[in-house]
Write a structure and sequence with these properties.
74% helix, mainly alpha
Length: 172
């Protein structure tokens, strides 16, 4: 599962994900895999967007600036949703906790959107509108693929594979 998260992060911010240092033999494979993913994602991005060397360098700078922030917000959103699901699956969900988690979810969504808007403003300085639109679509494809890998590594549970609601609590 950790490998899938690392790959997911690499796909989201292909230029900024460092290899995680662990003192075992698998770390070499992990670091190599992360580097391969970053390189492949960069090559795909350059090809599909038709970027020049100068545009590619500028894109890497923008990714370096926004990638870690976006990844952190996405991970917080995921954690908030997971906590909300857990709370809702309780026999007696805590109303105050649910309210707090809903507020956090909305706050994090706003934060993510603000980051995307700021990123898009910077991208507009050197990418055409068509390149920016293609880049957004490519990022979504990378995220979807990373989600697929994550679900495969976590035993298949993911979107569309939810636990059934507790008895007597079907969809209303």
């Amino acid at each position: 599962m950790r490998l899938a998260v690392a790959i997911s992060a690499a796909l989201l911010t292909w230029s900024t994900v460092p290899a995680v240092a662990q003192p075992n033999a698998r770390n070499g494979n992990r670091a190599m895999l992360e580097q391969q993913v970053r390189e492949r994602a960069a090559a795909i991005t350059r090809e599909r967007l038709g970027l020049t060397d100068a545009q590619m360098q500028q894109l890497q700078r923008v990714n370096t600036r926004f990638g870690p922030q976006l990844s952190a917000v996405v991970m917080e959103e995921r954690s908030s949703r997971r906590q909300l699901r857990q709370e809702l699956m309780a026999a007696q969900p805590n109303q105050a906790r649910v309210s707090t988690l809903l507020d956090a979810s909305i706050r994090l969504q706003k934060q993510r959107i603000a980051l995307i808007e700021a990123e898009q403003k910077e991208l507009a300085a050197f990418l055409t509108p068509v390149q920016r639109a293609r880049y957004l679509a490519l990022q979504a494809q990378f995220r979807n693929r990373a989600d697929q890998l994550s679900r495969q590594n976590s035993g298949g549970r993911g979107r569309g594979m939810r636990r059934p609601p507790p008895k007597g609590e079907g969809v209303r």
